[in-house]
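== Sequence entry ==
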Amino acid sequence: MANDDLSTRLTDLGHSLDSIEAVADLERLRAEIAELEEQVAAPDLWDDQDNAQRVTSQLSAKQGEVDRLVGLRSRLEEAELMLELAEEENDADTTAEVVRELDKLAKDVEALEVRTLLSGEYDPRDALITIRAEAGGVDAADFAEMLMRMYMRWADRHGYATEVYDTSYAEEAGLKSATFAIKAPFAYGTLSVEQGTHRLVRISPFDNQGRRQTSFAGVEVLPVTEEADSIDIPEADLRIDVFRSSGPGGQSVNTTDSAVRITHLPTGIVVSCQNEKSQLQNKAAALRVLQSRLLEKARQDREKELNALKSDGGNSWGAQMRSYVMNPYQMVKDLRTEHEVGNPEAVFDGDIDGFIDAGIRWRKKAETSA
């Protein structure tokens, strides 16, 4: 690649980074970090552990965002210096190194550009994900567990914390359902495009005749509630049942009735948590999940009111959105964006950023044209 072309790429990346920094508002972020650092330094911070965790989590997230932007700017400046050096010394090796670095920079800048498209009310929040096995019997339960691992591996790749609230194991293999949180800046806005029905086609490992099986799993993505949401849930609206936690195959993993199931009587929403050590911890976790469900229901109710004024009736989140085909060919394809890859194993190992980015762009385009 000619040095003039490399200079043009550097200039274009610089303009893109300028736009991202303007949207992120670095000065505002630094002011918020300074305020959070004062709160963290307070001697009584940990008197309220929930608030302390919220403050330290926000500080870590905002500092990480600033570090990413500053790091990209520094890498861009270093690439400019390397290109000048390569031109002065006519050094082909250094030029090749600049090309490799620009390829990496372009990928990282594009990922941050997608972040600027997340402008929804709850987009900056942590994500609460529930995966349910649907049609397909034991294959569907196994598929649900594969999807849970996929999202956990995705979070691990990015260094995001996760917390499992509930896992309901199927009898033979896999999961009936699972609920877990991914704790990261803009986790909800990022992962909300994963909501919908996922479809798997493969030779079933559970079929002794080796037949091809199609199975389905549903993914629900909600924003984690915060204190400011003020969702008041009267005790009279709740039915709380306790039961014994169980592991795969129905085997008991707890000798006390510590698992908690909460039914919200007005809406019929049912949530449960069995992964904490005590009944009180499970109840608190289940209430957090219930609040997220009620928050999403309120959002959907508002959306329905608006959609009632439109002829198209709004979006259907329950529609089939992605196919994972492992036989007779290898392909994972998003049915909304047409984004596809030919390596299902990599996808199931958490390599889903391409699908997420395409989904966010697709959604933004749909919102703009609506």
